[in-house]
Design brief:
Tetracycline Repressor, domain 2, Arc Repressor Mutant, subunit A, single chain
């Protein structure tokens, strides 16, 4: 990557982070539904059209953090002698450890919005599908198989299923009256529960 391209990527990352930061602040201050894309863009000092270049919808702003990108980069760094699930486990530990306390606070806020706002919760299903595609892509790069190989897709789906089983509360569903605090489910220490669940997958899910 050239210096100019690297500078563009850093500027894009800063704009993306600024939009998320201002949006979460406005959501706290005036509520999710009362906050408009125009208000978020103005707070971040960009145009609404720039907002939509980064996030197709307001829901996407909440759901799309850097977790997938950091996991993919960490996965690519794992030694080739590790099996796919072992490499995913190691990449998960590395990615979780890369977030600052401030970033975890943003993730926590986004997670609580996902649990409390029906529109975001519904849109989250798209994110699970996207996560399967991301994991299939990084597995393809590691194994030399095609991303649509049924074995890769099955493994990617299994990994995302494990993540959902760890991070979605059992009582979550339509019409639920009480939603548990997201910080009790997904935070820096959640990597230990996720690693234990992925270890079961690596062992073939013995019962």
């Amino acid at each position: 990557m050239t210096a100019q391209a690297s500078l563009r990527e850093r500027k894009k990352a800063r704009t993306r982070a600024s939009l998320r930061e201002h949006a979460l602040r406005l959501f706290r201050e005036q509520g999710y539904h009362a906050t408009t894309v125009e208000q978020i863009a103005a707070a971040a000092e960009v145009s609404p059209s720039t907002f939509f270049r980064y996030f197709p919808t307001k829901e996407d702003l909440v759901l799309q953090d850097d977790m997938d990108a950091r996991l993919a980069k960490a996965f690519a760094r794992q030694p080739p002698e590790l099996g796919p699930v072992a490499a995913i486990r190691a990449a998960t530990r590395e990615a979780w450890g890369s977030f600052t306390p401030e970033e975890w606070e943003q993730i926590r806020q986004g997670g609580e919005l996902t649990m409390h706002v029906p529109e975001i919760r519904a849109r989250a299903m798209n994110e699970f599908a996207r996560a399967i595609n991301v994991i299939a892509e990084v597995l393809a790069a590691r194994t030399g198989r095609a991303p649509d190989d049924i074995r890769l897709r099955a493994l990617a789906g299994a990994v995302v299923g494990v993540m959902m089983s760890v991070f979605l509360p059992p009582e979550m569903g339509e019409g639920m009256d009480v939603v548990p605090e997201f910080s009790a489910i997904f935070g820096p220490d959640s990597v230990f529960r996720l690693d234990a669940a992925l270890a079961l997958l690596e062992e073939g899910l013995p019962l």
